Amino acid sequence: xxxxxxxxxxxxxxxxxxxxxxxxxxxxxxxxxxxxxxxxxxxxxxxxxxxxxxxxxxxxxxxxxxxxxxxxxxxxxxxxxxxxxxxxxxxxxxxxxxxxxxxxxxxxxxxxxxxxxxxxxxxxxxxxxxxxxxxxxxxxxxxxxxxxxxxxxxxxxxxxxxxxxxxxxxxxxxxxxxxxxxxxxxxxxxxxxxxxxxxxxxxxxxxxxxxxxxxxxxxxxxxxxxxxxxxxxxxxxxxxxxxxxxxxxxxxxxxxxxxxxxxxxxxxxxxxxxxxxxxxxxxxxxxxxxxxxxxxxxxxxxxxxxxxxxxxxxxxxxxxxxxxxxxxxxx
Length: 331
Fold this sequence. Notes:
TIM Barrel; about 325 residues; eight-stranded parallel sheet; two-stranded antiparallel ribbon; alpha/beta; 14 helices
């Protein structure tokens, strides 16, 4: 059935705040972003975001080296686009990695910071430093009414309401995207809300806007693009996968899901047999095994995707994807 295109609006609070053409953000998938992908998204009219280990092939335990590697990727991104882009800031317990990264993105005058973290972290000091530097703050954390109201009071510019449909580390609340979005929209007064989780075609975009979101935040859809670093065999596997195929298992802090691999099958079996979250977390192997599965294309790792993988049928350019998703904003 053909869906008629209609123009919703030319701009909204998201586009004005972030200085972008279309209200769409590319999520900062660990290992899977780099200057090429991020610049492509920004050049297409959205906001690209450099995620953890952006552009890298090896891990480092050094906060200083982590920061300098990100600085290099920021400068590469600037060579490819003159449009706004962002960097993820993961607020950790002792700020060991957070503070050096904050120092650097302020020095580099990065336009937008995507702040991630769990409740109880020191968001107040992080927000204060970013706001004093004139950096816009998009917050994406546990999507609860209490959290949204707290983050609004602390001065975030945009709140991302993430549903259980997402890829990566899943929320603890287990509330679907199209239930959590209107709940969060109704709970804040002065900041716009973006929808995340399971959105990968224009039907999802339109549904998100109908529920009060003013933008969409996508990870999985951008993994299956020509510019993405994702292993080619993983991209092709995504085209053959739907939500019914995915493995889901407990871990820390909550849940993860994966396209079936040797490792994910073992994790599902451990979960069924009563393994603790701690045991599952150790077996999962964190970022190391995400890199193995998604960047290297090795089935001994895991392949984290959201439920929107069901609707990805073709590997396209970033520009084609953005144009399709934002068709209602294009004359």
